[in-house]
Design goal:
eight-stranded mixed beta sheet, six-stranded parallel beta sheet, 22 strands, about 45% helix
Length: about 575
């Protein structure tokens, strides 16, 4: 009897596995086989729906629209999006762009890149119309690149300035009996403030206030130019949150009109000279991008090395800049005779010091044999700045958050938590007076703390020395703008940390000019993994995450925070806080 029960259970499991595998295979074949030839008809409108996570590179996911198989997260590659808009500018079949955006998940430098692409598109004589039910402040800033901005009659525009909020963990650590052991250098040492304070220090409040105002000043200038509203008027509207509803948005000229979607379609029909109720031929961004043929450029190439995420040792993955991966890509570009210039595209708040230094070395070697240009995105701070500082020219957006030239080291003494909360204790035997220097099971001795502090100061000298060399200024002068302080791109330009204010396109043009190129191809690296490999990794990761969520329940959030703390263990060249501007 037991034999038959076991046999039936095994047989049933096999059937279920076979059925699931069959469904997955059909879905895979459908996704891979549904790539039809894209045909763009005349009098079309490129529709850009930008309520998505905007990353540097496009993440190809054929399953994105298939329930249960897709990641559920809409992602758009910035560089791919810019190329799509650039191509549409000269495509006679595309008459204009219809922009839909309410809550884009992107930093202001990324939005600036898109905004400038839209402005460039309009210079061809074509139009851009923006429409949304509601617009966040980032969405509105992007929309002001359009000829016309329309809002739902019952919608609203957020226009009340920017805010930065910093989360502090000291009280949590006190309750859990976890003691951070911190080693740092300089006046602006706010990277570790969330672990040791309950609110901002005066130094951190100063740098954040100046940073935020620098970014917002540039935004207001752009809005003023886009909407033809005096700058002082905009500042007054923002400071007092005067625009609280859709009617006030029209009254104060933030938008051109209040229309429902069907009324916006009528506006587009007029622009396209269509009859009433005729279909507006929208072309989705993703579909249109498939119709674009990559520029070949003969024997010349500009290699764009994309470093997007937190810097860690080893291989790159989504959201992680692997020092080993990026160093290898820079090395290959240096040795490749077809590559005449290199652009390092950086979007990173920093991370592990050794990985940053590994990549810096390859940038320095490459700059000795061919032009190397650094292009900064939303962040190029601390380890991100370290990666860029050996380039011949550094290009940053006015909104870019950069600098943060500083080092800190942090360890977490969890002996109180382990012993008093969990009942776990530790003991050790050593051959000398120093034990394990990276440990959570006991507090460090004073001698061990001295080692950590000295090491942190030595690495800070290395960082500032190499930064001074790259910028061509004395180390003591550079230290005046270092100490871990963050700057906007505009502020960094004034302090000689950045050479040129501009975007990705500017960096490409500078690289081409430096290499004496007129005909060339631009290629991005690292090359994206084959889809099937990505898909299998995603399935594995999703299964792991689901199992952890089910096992840990409400404690899953604490597990995630624990992983972040693990990343902070040891010597870090990292931006002084997790910055979210709203």
């Amino acid at each position: 009897m037991n034999f038959f029960k076991t046999f039936l259970a095994s047989f049933l499991a096999l059937l279920v596995f076979s059925a699931v595998s069959f469904v997955l295979m059909i879905a895979l074949l459908f996704a891979l086989g549904s790539e039809e030839k894209v045909v763009i008809t005349s009098n079309s409108v490129l529709q850009l729906k930008l309520d998505a996570q905007i990353t540097e590179q496009e993440i190809d996911d054929p399953f994105s629209d298939i329930p249960l198989l897709g990641s559920g997260i809409q992602r758009i590659g910035l560089l791919s999006l810019k190329e799509t808009i650039r191509h549409a500018k000269s495509d006679p079949k595309i008459k204009g762009i219809f922009l839909n955006v309410s809550y884009p998940m992107a930093g202001f430098s990324t939005l600036e890149e898109i905004r400038q692409s839209l402005i460039d598109f309009r210079e061809s004589g074509k139009w851009v119309v923006a429409y949304a039910d509601v617009m966040s402040e980032p969405a509105y800033y992007l929309a002001t690149a359009a000829d016309k901005v329309y809002l739902n009659p019952e919608g609203e525009v957020e226009f009340n300035g920017l805010t930065v909020e910093v989360t502090f963990f000291k009280k949590l650590f006190d309750k859990l009996e976890i003691k951070p052991e911190i080693f740092r250098v300089g006046d602006f040492k706010s990277a570790v403030e969330p672990f040791m304070l309950e609110k901002m220090s005066d130094e951190n409040r100063l740098q954040l206030s100046e940073l935020l105002n620098s970014i917002y000043d540039h935004m207001l200038v752009g809005i003023s130019e886009g909407r033809n509203i005096p700058l002082d008027n905009l500042r007054e509207l923002s400071d007092n949150m005067t625009v609280r509803n859709a009617k006030l948005a029209v009254e104060h000229s933030l938008v051109d009109g209040l229309l429902y979607y069907d009324e916006v379609l009528n506006e587009l029909r007029e622009r396209l000279e269509l009859e009433e109720d005729a279909r507006v031929k929208f072309v989705a961004r993703k579909k249109y991008s498939k119709s674009i043929q990559a520029k070949q450029g003969g024997a010349n190439e500009i290699a764009v090395i994309v470093a997007d995420g937190t810097i860690m040792p080893g291989k790159s993955s989504e959201g992680i800049i692997g020092g080993e991966t990026i160093a290898e890509e820079i090395r290959k570009a240096r040795l490749n005779k077809k590559v005449k210039a290199i652009v390092i595209r950086v979007n990173s708040p920093g991370g592990a010091f050794q990985a940053s230094d590994m990549m810096w070395r390859e940038v320095k070697l490459a700059s000795e044999v061919k032009p190397v240009i650094a292009s900064m995105s939303d962040y190029a701070a601390s380890g991100g700045y370290y990666l860029a500082m050996a380039a011949d020219t550094i290009v940053a957006q006015p909104h870019t958050i950069t600098g943060s030239i500083g080092i800190f080291s942090v360890l977490f003494d969890a002996s109180g938590f382990m012993g008093n909360k969990l009942g776990i204790t530790f003991d050790e035997v050593n051959t000398g007076k120093f034990g394990e220097l990276v440990t959570f099971s006991r507090p460090l001795t004073q001698a061990e703390k001295d080692v950590w502090q000295n090491r942190t100061e030595e690495i800070y000298e290395t960082f500032t020395g190499k930064a001074a060399e790259g910028r061509g200024i004395p180390q003591e002068e550079l230290k005046k703008v270092a100490s871990g302080r963050v700057w906007s791109g505009s502020q960094a330009k004034e302090r000689a940390l950045v050479d040129i204010l501009g975007g990705y396109d500017d960096a490409i043009n500078i690289a081409a000019k430096a290499a004496g190129l007129e005909d060339y191809a631009v290629k991005e690296y690292p090359v994206q993994k084959p889809f099937f490999e990505q898909f299998m990794e995603q399935l594995s990761e999703n299964a792991k995450t689901k199992a952890l969520r089910e096992e840990l329940g409400d404690q899953y959030y604490l597990y995630q925070q624990g992983l972040k703390l693990k990343e902070l263990h040891g010597v870090q060249a990292r931006m002084p806080f997790q910055l979210s501007i709203q």
